[in-house]
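Journal club side-thread
Mid-discussion, someone asked how the predicted structure for our own chain would compare to the paper's figures. Pasting it here so we can look after the session.
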Amino acid sequence: MKTHLLLIPAIALAISSCKEKPAMTQDNEIKEEVYGKMPDGREVKIFTLSNKNGYIAKVTEYGAILVSVEAPDKDGNVEDITHGFDDLKGWLGNTPYFGATVGRFGNRIANGKFTLDGKEYTLPTNNEPGGIPCSLHGGTEGFNQKLWTGKETDDGVEFTYVSKDGEEGYPGTLTVKVTYSLNDDNELKWHAEATTDAPTVINIVNHTYWNLSNDQNSKILDHIVTLNADHYLPTNPGLIPTGEVAPVAGTPMDFTKPTAIGDRVEDDFEALKLGGGYDHAWVLNKGEGVRFAAKVEDPKSGRVLEISTDQPAIQFYCGNFLDGTVTGKDGIAYGKRTAMALETEGYPDAPNHPEFPSSVLRPGEKYEHTMIWKFSVE
């Protein structure tokens, strides 16, 4: 676990320097380094964003991945609060999508099939919860396994990738751009946009795993969660939405008030049994533009994470399938419920549910998805 004490904000900005190029306002900086090489020899860059308050975020061209976020606790200790790996080699392995930008369609598509404009498309199936196959997070080689092209901009770091027609079974050539930016209000913004040359379906999602404590090997059961959602999407045993939009009131799915994850995660409730805990999409309460979606508080460290988005849903997953077989940063074998993912998104399996908000993107349209992580200490 890499830890340093936040004594003076400038210290956080002085930790190593390589090709530093100030690219942001106020005291913010971006630095660019070589992270490693792909198996075919292509070079992979990593970018470090930092602000005047000692917050540091690292992002890489491989998978447009958020590699790490270093944040101070109530005592000024600055530590990484995300699951992941120490080097590029780790990310190149079979990972649980730590920090990744996933697509073309994040979350699940039932049986790897959907119909668009009267034509059926078949996708690779790479996940079988409950013995029911689905295409998960873009298929066997989704956006998280692609080498994007990264560059510094006035706003932050921009990654681009062109997904060719037919890639992983999806129609249309999709041109994608993902931008990360960090400001002095301690807001880390992830913004995705895309255009297509033929009708397709799309749901680009960021899949960062959070543990706000000072120990990434500890369980997140004491983390307190609030979700701006009065409803959730029940699923079948394959974790595919049934089409029902169910109220959370009176169930363990109710996070409309701050609630510790561990309070009800083992309750005798069908949704929790099917998911092995929380692993569902919550329907965010309606509002215009980017709005509050979720809040996470760690009582011990004092760290607070607030998430805002312009998307209709958020997938809350509390690491049910982490089982210690993946060794990550600092040699930690990540165990069950040692981190959570809060993925703002369109509805899972939307291409097969005409009653859900549409996931179809057509030529001449632009897909956009904004998610903002705001960090603080209480």
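Post-session note: The chain has a mean pLDDT of 93.
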